[in-house]
Each structure stands twice: as C-alpha cells, then as structure tokens.
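queue> pop job 88
queue> type: inverse folding (structure -> sequence)
queue> payload:
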C-alpha cells in the first residue's frame, strides 16, 4: 500500500548560483519527500521532550488542535476507505 501521509522539504534555491529566479522572485525546490516519521506540525506543543515530559493533546492551542483534527480526519477517512470500513 501507498503511505497515506507524505511531506516534502523545500529549499530556497534562489540563494545559490544553480537557479536564477526572476528579479525579486524566489525559486523553491524539493529537497526530499518523506513518508516515515511524519509529524503534524500543529501538534508540536504536545511533543514530549526531557524538559516537557508530561505534555499532551491538552497543551495544544485550540486553533492548532482544530487544524490537526481536520488533517487527522482526512487521513482517517482515506485509511478507512482503503481498509473497506
């Protein structure tokens, strides 16, 4: 099966000599695609680290949690379709 969630890292290529954008423009290129260890940046407030070992979903600001819920629901619906449920 194809992974449901993909991310890509973009690099601003207009800083180097490889790509010359139009005057005042930017040229962004994909540095990598990733389908493993993908996180939802809206949930970073709930990321447990040594200095924040007890954080949880409750620590995510309401607006960020709402956005993460939208993203999660989209992926969940697609997963359910793939599984036939």
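queue> result:
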């Amino acid at each position: 099966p194809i992974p449901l969630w993909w991310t890509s890292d973009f690099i601003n290529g207009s800083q180097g000599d490889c790509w010359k954008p139009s005057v005042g423009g930017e040229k962004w290129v994909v540095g990598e695609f990733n389908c493993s260890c993908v996180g939802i940046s809206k949930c970073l407030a709930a990321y447990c680290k040594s200095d924040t070992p007890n954080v949880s979903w409750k620590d995510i600001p309401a607006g960020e949690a709402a956005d993460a819920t939208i993203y999660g629901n989209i992926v969940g619906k697609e997963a359910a379709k793939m599984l036939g449920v």
